[in-house]
Structure formats: C-alpha cells, structure tokens
Description:
heterodimer, A: mainly beta, four-stranded antiparallel beta sheet
Amino acid sequence: xxxxxxxxxxxxxxxxxxxxxxxxxxxxxxxxxxxxxxxxxxxxxxxxxxxxxxxxxxxxxxxxxxxxxxxxxxxxxxxxxxxxxxxxxxxxxxxxxxxxxxxxxxxxxxxxx
Amino acid sequence: xxxxxxxxxxxxxxxxxxxxxxxxxxxxxxxxxxxxxxxxxxxxxxxxxxxxxxxxxxxxxxxxxxxxxxxxxxxxxxxxxxxxxxxxxxxxxxxxxxxxxxxxxxxxxxxxx
Lengths: 113, 113
C-alpha cells in the first residue's frame, strides 16, 4: 500500500534560517504529491503540489521537487519567518483515481525571532 | 465561492452519546472524504462518498461509525455511543467529479468527556 515518511519534529529554527523537511514515499504507479500546512487551531491548507516527476511545486517561498528516482518530495524554504510556525504534512494521492490522500505524520516547525 | 464548510467547529459529548458532524462540500464538488486526526498524529482516511453512495469505507471502524452523503444537504459523519478514544479532529474534504485536488474544511474537534 501507499505510505509517506517524513522527518520527525519538532524543528526549531531562527528567523531567516534555511528550512528543509524531508519526505519520502512508497506508492504504486505515479502518485501526485502534496505539502499541506496546518496552523495552530486551524484546518489543513494546501501549500503546494506536484503531479509528475521533476515537477517543482512552489508557493509563499516554499518549494518541493518531485524526485521519482529517490521517491522524495522534500520541502524547502530559503528564509523562514515566525509566521511559518505550523505543522507541515507531506501527502500523496494516486493519479487518475479519486483523491484518497495518504498523509505523513506531520512535522512541527517552530520559528523563533 | 465558499470553501468546504464543517460544523460544528467544536463538539463536546459525554460517553455513550451520539455525535453528528456535518460537511458541506465546495460548490460543484460531488466527492466527499472524511479523515480523522488523533492527537499528535497525521490524518487517516476514513471514508469516501459520492452523492448517495459510499465508494470506499476501508478506513471506517466497523462499529458505531457511519457516513452518508444524501442527494440534498450536507454529508454527515455519525458516531454512536461515543467513547473517549473517539476524541479527535475530524476533517472533511471535497473534490470535483473531474478528479482535481481535494480541498479541506477546518475540521470538527470532538471531545468526549
């Protein structure tokens, strides 16, 4: 079956530091890959996505590249802000099928001033 | 175009009571998904429904849990005889029939006391 593994948190960074959150996946076929963000007390928001190999998803300074050879979709941001503090979920869904999403366990990011 | 609407946002039930969680999908979306997020964990798929049909309920507990998506009105996730272990955040997502990305609601946080 499908699975997503992401680095455990919490991750604590100073403002303007570089962020990487690792994510690898196992799936049959060619899934679509996503990063969702959950701010404290809020629901999930789609941050970015990529639907095929070598695609790069980007939004709000975050980016992730779909690497089929390493089955990875690492999230990066060059300079984090305090407002980026949240839980980040890596996820996948099978392309062509319905949007049943498999989530990683989430990585909590805390950015300190 | 309003997003996925869930209500209530917070629900408190005593052990043995019933919990009803409602989800109105985005306009034009006919596919609804329910996920459960236990404390400190990622989201787990529960059930996928289309209008008047349950398509995939592989993530639903066999007892006490049921879901419906009637021809008219919101999708309902129903939990009978709640227990403390049912305390969680329940998220609904919807997607269009053409297979686009799923959008999530803000969730209902159920607390069983």
